[in-house]
Structure formats: C-alpha cells, structure tokens
Design a protein that fits this description.
By secondary structure, the protein is of the alpha+beta class. The protein has 20 helices and 24 strands. The radius of gyration is 79 Å and the shape is elongated. The protein binds adenosine-5'-diphosphate. The site of adenosine-5'-diphosphate has 22 residues, from helix 17, helix 18 and helix 19.
C-alpha cells in the first residue's frame, strides 16, 4: 500500500516536471515567436531609421559645406574676376604700363573692399605700380618676384590664388590673387597681383550653424586652417594636416565632396562632411558632434526602445499571467488526477476561472464522484461476495463435516448431533433439533439438539409432537419444508406457547423422508421475526437428506451387524455339525471298507463273479466317500478352528519323491507324460510336511484329472527363504472369470467341466487354507483349452505367528 502510494507520487512528480517543461517550452516558443518578431521588426525599423537619419544628416552636412564653399568660392572668384577685369591696360608705353594704369588699380580698390594692396609686376619680376588701401602707394622696387609662384603662374596666363598669409602687421589673413596683364589675348606684358583680405571667409564660416554645436571651417590645400569660428585657432595658424579628416583629403581618390566620422581637435566624435573649392585649393569642412547629430535619432530610438521595453514587459507579464491562468488550472487538474491515481478518491477540484477550465474541473469532480460511487459499490459488492463466499465455504465445510460424519461414523447419535450443530450454526439459528418418527407411537421423538435449554428438551420429550399438532408434523404430511416467519401469528401448533416462551419467533421445519419411508424432521428456530430464506431452506434440505442417509446407514449397519452375528453362529454350528458328522460317518465307513476288503480278499470265501463286481464297485465308491468325508472333516475342522499344523522339520525332496511315486501311475494310466524338475536338492524345511504333501497331491491330482492328453509337469525352485512349487498341465484350462472362485469351498469352476470330471470343489479350498496357514500364497494362471499352472509359494521356515494367519 505504502509502496504503491509513494510510487504513484513519484510518477506524478516526474509527470509534473514533464508538464512543467511543456508549459515552459510552449511559453518560450510563444514568447520567442511573438516577442521575437516584434523585437526584430522594431529593431529593423530602428536600423532603417538610423540609416535614413544618417543619410539625411550627411545630406544636410554636405549641403552646408557646399553652401559655404559656393559662397567662399564666389567671393574669391568675384574678387579674381574684378582683378581680371581691371588687368587689361588701356595703353602701353613700350610694352610697359603707363601711370594711368594706376587709375585702374585705384578703381579696383575702390570697388572691391577686400583688396588691400594691388600691384603690377613687370615681366622682369620687378614691381612697377602699387596702389594700397592703407599704406603708401609706392612700388617696392627692391622686390624681385621673378620666381614667385603668383608671378610665374600669372605670367603663364593663368589666374592664380595664393596660399593664405598672415601678415605680421595685421590680424587679417590674406591671399594673393594674380592675373596676367594682357593688352591682347595671349600677349602678357606683366602680372597684376592683389592682396585680398579673406576675413570675409570667416564671416561665411561663422554664419554657418548646424544644430547646437555644429560648425564649419576651412583648410587650405596644405592643411593650414584658413577659417574657423574660433578665431584664435586661425590666428595661431593651426596646421591641421595631421587631423585624420584633413589628412584624408590628401588621400588619392578622395572626391569633391564626402562624409565620415572622425575625432575633432577636442577628441570628440564628429560627423564630418567636406566640400573642396578646387579653384582656390581650399576645403570646407562641416563638423558636428556625433552625439548631437544623432541626438534626435537617439532620443527617438530611446523612446521606441522604452516603448519596446514597456511592451515587452507588458507582454511578458501578460504571457506569465495568461500562462498562469492556463497552467494553474492544468496543474490543479494534474494534481487531482495524480491524487486519483494514488487512490485518493476524495480528490476534488475547486476552480472558479469561469471558463472551460472550470467546466473541466466540474467534469473532473463528477467523474471522481462516479468513480468513488463505483468504487464504494465495488467494495460493497466485494464485501458481500466475500461474505457470501465465506458463508458458502462454511456451508461446504459444514456439509463436508456432516458427510464425513455420515460416512465415517456409524454412531447414529454422533452423526445426528453433528448434523444439528452444523445446521443450526450455518443457518444462523438460535436453536435446532432433530426428531425421529416413532412409527408405533405415531409421535416425533427428540433425538439431538443444539443451543436448547434442557428444560425445553424435557418439555418436548414429555409431550412429543404428533403428526397433527406440530409444525414438523405438517411439514411431513405436506412433504414440504414449513417456514414460519412469526410464531406469534401461527396458531396451528400446539407448541406455540413453549416455543414463544423460549423466545423463538421464526421456525423452519424440514421433513426427513426417503421414498415412502418417514424418518422424522429437522426443526430450527430464530429469535428474530422474518423466517428463513430460500437459500437457507435449501441448505437445510441438504442436511435433512444427510440425516436420512445417516439414519438409514445406521439402521442398515445395525441389521448387517445383527445378521453377521447370526451368520457367524450358524457357520460355527455348521462346522461343528460337519466335524461331528464326518467323524461319525468315518467310523462306519472304515468298517464298511474293511469288511469289503475282507470280502474281496476271500476271507469269507471266494466270491462269485457276479457278486465280486458290485463289491469292487462298493469299495471304490466307499473310498471315494471316505475321501470326501476326510475333506469335509478337514475343512470343517479348519473353519471351526480345530485344525492346527503339526510343525516340524520335513524334507521337501522326500515329499517330491512320494508325490512322484503316488501320481506317476495315475498319469500313466491316463496316457499322460509326467515330469518333475527341481533346481537341486532343496533340503529341510520347517512346517507341516504332511499337509504340504496333501496340497501338492491335490494340485497334481487335479492336473491329471482335467487333462485329456499331453503332460503334467511339477517344478520346484527354492531360495533361502521360500519354496516355489508349480504344477503345469495341458488340460482344459479354467475360464478367467472362474479363476477367483475355484479356491472357495465348493467352487467348481466351469459347470460343464465339473460335470464331466466330477469332484466336490473342496480340494483347492483346503489347499488354500493349508498354504495360508503356512504363511504362503497360492494362485492359478490358465488359458482355456491350453492348460493351467498352479503356483504355491511357502516360506522355507514357517514362523509360529505366520503359520496361524488365515
Ligand atoms: P474338485 O476338483 O473336487 O471339483 P477342486 O477344489 O479341486 O475340486 O477344484 C475346483 C474346481 O477347479 C474344479 O471343479 C475345476 O473346475 C477347477 N480346476 C481345478 N484344477 C484344475 C485344473 N488343473 N485344470 C482345470 N480346472 C481345474
């Protein structure tokens, strides 16, 4: 019981683990599918947005850079254009500039405020004219520009934009723009150079604001900072060629414009866009801290992330809640099922989820209740069946006891007592009795009782019930059991009052009848009202039958015993008579034979032939009669217990010899062969030699008598304990059914044979008696018309006890 319970629990535990896993797994799959796709879509969305934002940012940056570049280029180009317009001279003096060229230059300075100085250089590289906004408009004749780039480039016919210069006398950086002085296209007579203030570039740069802290700056081709919102940096003439974003500009293949993420001078990560101004060799860079550039995106992403997180948390919470809502009822159902499995039929579920789970729980409860009912019913039935079985078993035992008592005991009183005890107890009665019907007095006599008070028995014995005034009488007359549910109501019985006084209310009376013979009846009483069931009546009928058989057995036995005793006495008398008679017959018979002998011997004179024949016949018949008398005498002596063996040492060999000499002539007279075979000399035995001889002569005599032709053979084998004689003939044989009877007195086998061969049927009976008295055995084997073999086995030495056993 314990083991079963624990194993049930453990299996339930394993099942719970399994189910737990299933729920977890489904939850995970669900969460992964739903949550995962949601998260992935949001992440993808965020990725795309990041990409888009970045592209937008880059576009804006590039546009800013482009705008700045355009403005700077326009400004510088406008100046260059003005210079170029002012360059051609109206007149030349020997291919040299005349003074009125200075007028051109003054106009130029006037119209273009950014130009500080403008000067014309002759082909020899010497300054010829100079107009200055601040200083003296006197050419510096000492300077030789022949190898200066601005000179060589312009002399070659090109417009030249020089590198930025930071003159020591001014805070304003300048560049030199030079153009060829060509009175006619292709005819260069000098170079016009203007020192242009590029402060304006600063203004452009400072006007550019991207976001909160985005800024633009300009570097020259050599990496020198040209313009920057932070003027200090410019004034320091910062060389930014080592800055990665500036260095990248020099990389081959870097285009007109581009974008990248680098670190700025403050070591901040910045998004950088650049735009080259090819004509001047400068580059405008627009930088904006990455964090700031992406701030809106990051904020938006953060918001999305937060929403995602919140949604995820809500989803997980909802999933957990939902899971709980699903798992908990399932778990409750599972626990209930496990309890049922473990045999706890009281298990009930209480779910008030208000959904299918609650319905399922109700179904479960109904099922459990039915199971419980069925189980209870089953248990009840098992108990009932067990009780019924027990009852049947008890009945069978009781009947068994009764049958045993009936068959084993011839003590009628004991048998009746056994029956009444079992009948009373098995029927659950409070008292029971057996009556025997007294034919002479025509009353029922009390024979045996159980659980009855002696006083009550005395009452019944004093006034025995009759056929008419009692319930048992009624049962006998009707030949049917009488079942009285309440004695109080039944008025027919003369014993109503004493029975009620004893407290009996239900009475059952069953007659014991066999054929026409009435033996009596069994009566049972119960103190409860209600009578007896069919089953109990049937049971009692069986006991009644047992009773009948027992009474009949006992009667028969009594009769047999009486007859046996009478027979024994008669047999005794017969034997006595026969012994006496034989003795009485022998004496005159001997006398008759003696006188016949004397007559035949001629003592009383020669006999006439006519007389001799009858006398001879008389002698033969007389001898036959004497033998018969002797046999009868022997037998009756044996039966009367008056014949004892004369035990002594005897020689078996001598017996065989005597046998041979006696019977050989008889055999030969019938034309039969006669053989005797012995192992060897047998020697001395202890027993009655004369009687053994009588036995053998009888057997051999029969063999010769019942054999018409053939041979008679006697065989003797001996062991240290026993002598075995066989007498074999080739005679008529004995029918198998007669083999047992031939050893009985007057047993004569086949009647036809007996008639033909004559005889008394005493020889074998006497032989058997003698052999048995020796403690030996005798038997015959025979095949009809083929011959018979008689066997005699006797102990070599008869013991006194064995000798007298019969
Ligand atoms: P009896 O020979 O005087 O009739 P027994 O007691 O000697 O009495 O034999 C009983 C019967 O057994 C015989 O009548 C005979 O039928 C049968 N019987 C005995 N010996 C033989 C035998 N050798 N062959 C055939 N029948 C035999």
């Amino acid at each position: 019981m314990e083991g079963g319970q624990s194993s049930g629990n453990s299996s339930a535990g394993a099942g719970s683990g399994r189910r737990g896993r299933i729920v977890r797994r489904y939850f995970l799959i669900f969460a992964t599918l739903v949550g995962g796709s949601f998260v992935i879509s949001v992440l993808m969305e965020m990725g795309f947005r990041f990409q888009e934002t970045r592209q937008n940012l880059e576009v804006v940056h590039r546009q800013m850079a482009e705008l700045a570049a355009v403005r700077i280029r326009n400004y510088v180009e406008d100046v260059a254009q003005a210079v170029r317009i002012a360059a051609p001279p109206r007149q030349l003096d020997n291919r040299r500039l005349t003074d009125d060229y200075a007028f051109n230059l003054r106009n130029l300075i006037k119209t273009i405020p950014a130009i500080r100085d403008v000067f014309a250089v002759g082909l020899d590289g010497r300054e010829q004219l100079r107009v200055s906004r601040i200083g003296q408009s006197v050419p510096d004749t000492s300077a030789d520009y022949a190898s200066e780039p601005f000179f060589t480039a312009a002399r070659a016919g090109k417009t030249y934009f020089g590198p930025i210069i930071f003159p020591p006398d001014s805070l304003e950086p300048r560049i030199v723009i030079s153009v060829p002085i060509e009175p006619f296209a292709g005819e260069v007579v000098g170079v016009l150079a203007a020192e242009v203030n590029v402060r304006y570039v600063w203004d452009v740069v400072q006007g550019i604001h991207i976001g909160k802290s985005g800024y633009a700056y300009v570097v020259s081709g050599g990496g020198i900072l040209v313009a920057h919102p932070d003027l200090h940096l410019v004034l320091q003439r910062k060389d930014l060629s080592a800055l990665p974003q500036v260095a990248a500009l020099r990389a081959p293949g870097s285009g007109e414009t581009g974008t990248g993420v680098y670190e700025n001078l403050d070591g901040q990560r910045v998004l950088v866009s650049y735009q080259r101004i090819r004509s001047i060799g400068w580059t405008v860079l627009v930088e904006r801290p990455l964090m700031e550039a992406y701030a809106p995106l990051l904020i938006s992403l953060g918001r999305t992330g937060a929403i995602l997180l919140v949604v995820c948390i809500l989803a997980v919470g909802a999933a957990v809640r939902l899971g709980r809502r699903v798992v908990m009822p399932i778990e409750a159902l599972r626990r209930g099922a496990a309890r049922l499995e473990a045999g706890d039929l009281d298990a009930r579920l209480h779910l008030d989820t208000g959904d299918e789970f609650e319905e399922l729980a109700e179904d479960f409860n109904r099922m459990a209740a039915r199971l419980q009912d069925a189980h209870a019913g089953l248990e009840h039935k098992v108990v009932e069946r067990t009780q019924a079985l027990e009852r049947s078993l008890n009945e069978v035992r009781g009947l068994g006891d009764t049958i045993q008592a009936v068959s084993a005991s011839l003590d009628l009183q004991k048998v009746l007592q056994t029956i009444v005890v079992h009948a009373t107890e098995l029927s659950g009665s409070d008292g029971g009795l057996i009556y025997e019907f007294d034919e002479d007095a025509q009353v029922f006599r009390f024979r045996a009782g159980h659980l009855l008070r002696p006083e009550f028995i005395a009452t019944l014995e004093a006034a025995p019930p009759t056929l008419r005034d009692s319930i048992v009488g009624r049962a006998v007359m009707m030949g049917e059991p009488q079942n009285i549910p309440d004695m109080e109501v039944d008025a027919s019985s003369a014993f109503r009052t004493p029975v009620l006084a004893e407290g009996y209310r239900s009475i059952l009376a069953v007659p014991t009848v066999r054929g026409d013979r009435l033996f009596g009846g069994i009566v049972l009483g119960r103190k409860a009202i209600g009578g007896y069931s069919e089953r109990e009546i049937d049971l009692l009928r069986t006991f009644a039958n047992g009773c009948t058989i027992a009474i009949e057995h006992a009667r028969l036995f009594l009769e047999v015993a009486q007859k046996n005793t009478a027979l024994q006495v008669a047999s005794q008398h017969k034997s006595q008579f026969l012994a006496n008679m034989s003795h009485e017959l022998r004496t005159p018979m001997n006398a008759i034979l003696g006188f016949t002998e004397l007559l035949l011997d001629g003592i009383y004179g020669e006999l006439d032939e006519r007389v001799r024949k009858p006398v001879e016949q008389l002698q033969i018949n007389g001898q036959h009669l004497l033998r018969l008398i002797n046999d009868v005498l022997d037998l009756s002596k044996i039966e009367a217990g008056r014949l004892d063996l004369a035990l002594d040492e005897y020689s078996a060999d001598e017996i065989i010899e005597a046998l041979q000499s006696t019977v050989r002539p008889l055999a030969e007279a019938k034309g039969l062969a006669f053989h005797v075979s012995t192992d060897s000399k047998i020697g001395f035995c202890y027993g009655d030699g004369r009687r053994m001889f009588q036995v053998l002569i009888n057997l051999v005599g029969n063999a010769i008598k019942f054999t018409r032709h053939g041979a008679v053979q006697v065989g003797i084998t001996a062991t240290s304990d026993e002598i075995h004689y066989t007498v074999r003939d080739t005679g008529v044989g004995i029918p198998p059914e007669e083999l047992g009877a031939i050893f009985e007195e007057f047993g004569r086998g086949d009647p036809a044979v007996a008639k033909e061969f004559g005889g008394t049927g005493l020889g074998l009976a006497i032989a058997k008696r003698f052999v048995t008295m020796h403690g030996g055995r005798i038997w015959a084997e025979s095949t009809l018309k083929k011959g018979s073999t008689f066997h005699v086995v006797v102990p070599r030495r008869v013991t006194d006890t064995g000798a007298m056993q019969q």
